[in-house]
Structure formats: structure tokens, C-alpha cells
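During the second year of the project, the team shifted from modelling isolated chains to modelling whole assemblies. The rationale, set out in the original proposal, was that interfaces cannot be judged from single-chain predictions alone. As a representative example for this report, we include one of the complexes processed in the last quarter. Its constituent sequences, exactly as entered into the pipeline, are reproduced here:
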Amino acid sequence: MRAATAAVETWVEEPLARFIDDARVRLVLLLESSGRVLAQHGFTRSVDVMSACALAAAIHASAAEIGRQLDGEPFTSLHHHGQARQIFLAELPTARGSHILLTVFDDATSIGLVRLYFTELSKRLAAPAPALAAATPAPSFVDFESDLNRNLAKLFGRI
Amino acid sequence: MRTPYAELLTVLARHRGVLGSFVVSERDGIAVDSNVQIGVQAEAVAALAASLHRKARLACGAAGGGKVTFLRLDAERGGICAAGRDDLVLVTISESRANIGLLRVEMMRAAKALT
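Output from the structure prediction step:
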């Protein structure tokens, strides 16, 4: 049985579903750099999404800062290879600003394919993104938790 | 950076109708070295060809055919050939006018040198 894909905002649904089909990845999280989740695929528990989002945002921020210090520019993608599973974490620029994509895959695919389809996903997401004026404002610290909970509830069908 | 595969890729690139050749890691789908003409999407071809070779290897294994020695894919305006050894795959992209027989001999010889 194929795992379900769920998105808080509809403009990411189709490009993301296509990425998942093409790249044959197991888990996907699309989030804002603040850690607020926009879409997920393959997760069954909201608590896992919440942890993964927090970790992904932190790893991305750390990698970007290391890049700035070493190279003058932030590092934008990162790949870790485990025994059976691998992760690819990368910045995904869209018309609504930079997002972060975290994906987990196994030997059904390869990092080369994941990078290839990630590039295609970037192009697709750049096109349908709603204009900045219509974009949801970045969450304040006060709103962050309620936004996060609302998004998690949407993704896991509780709204 | 010059790799041990640069020489064999140069030899393949000299064949008539060859647009590019790569040594690709089958597991990662990333080119270890390549020699391609301008306009060839090297990263995309490397990743997809490595995946193709892997699937052919698995299919042959499942069908009891043993190891894949040479893979040839013909298309409207050319084709892709692949010959693998362990995790490395030698891939060439060619136009229709390429002499595939000669290319095959050269690739099989070169694949033996892949380590």
C-alpha cells in the first residue's frame, strides 16, 4: 500500500506527489525555514513530523552557517548515507521564499536520482507558488506553536 | 581533477557519433568521471543510466540470466550503452550513426579495467 501524501497548501501537492513517484523516496517533509510544516509523505504520527521538522530546520540552519563561515555562501544541500537509509536535506527556493525539503530514501533509488528530481521539483514549485502578496505571513513566536499544531492537524486529518 | 578513468573515456569519446561517456557509481547514480559534449545533461543521464543498469541487473538476476555484461538501449535519434563491473558502470550516449559493434568491443574492454 502506498503511503499517503498530505499538504497544508494545495500548490505544493501535485509537484510533490510527482517528485515522490519519480524519485521513489520513502519519506518527505516540506517545511518553512522556521520549522513549520507544509507537507508530508510517509509519516504516520504527527509527533514524528514535529521532531523531524525541528531537527531538519536546525540542521539546515547549522549547515548554512558553516557554509557562510567556510565559503562565504550558505551550504544549501546535505546528504547522509546510513546502513539502509539515506537522507537528503536541501533548500528549496520558491516564489514564496526558501523552503526546506527533507527526504528519506533507501536502495530503491539513489542520491543521483533524488538530486535530479529535486531539481525538477524546484522548477515546478517555482511556477505555481502564489504571489508573495498573497502569501501567509511568517509566524511570530507567539503564533508559531498554534500554527504548527494547526498544520499538523491538517496533515493528519484532524481538521 | 584527473581520475584513472580519464584515458578510457577519451578513447570512447573519439568514436564516431559518441556524444559522451561516463563512469557512474551504480549505487549512488553519480558520475565519477565524464567526457561529454556541450549540451549533454551529464548529471541527469548519469543518474538515470545507473538506475537503468541496476534494474537490468536485478531483472537478469531474477530471470536466472546471471550478470549483465552489456546493456543497449536504442532510441529514435541514438542510444545509450552501458557495461558494468561491481558498482561502477561505463555509459556512453551515441547518435544513430555510431558504430555500436565497435563501441561495444571498446566498452567491454574498458569495463574490465573498472575497479
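Residues 5-155 of chain A form a domain with the Beta-Lactamase fold (CATH 3.30.450.30). Chain A has a mean pLDDT of 86.
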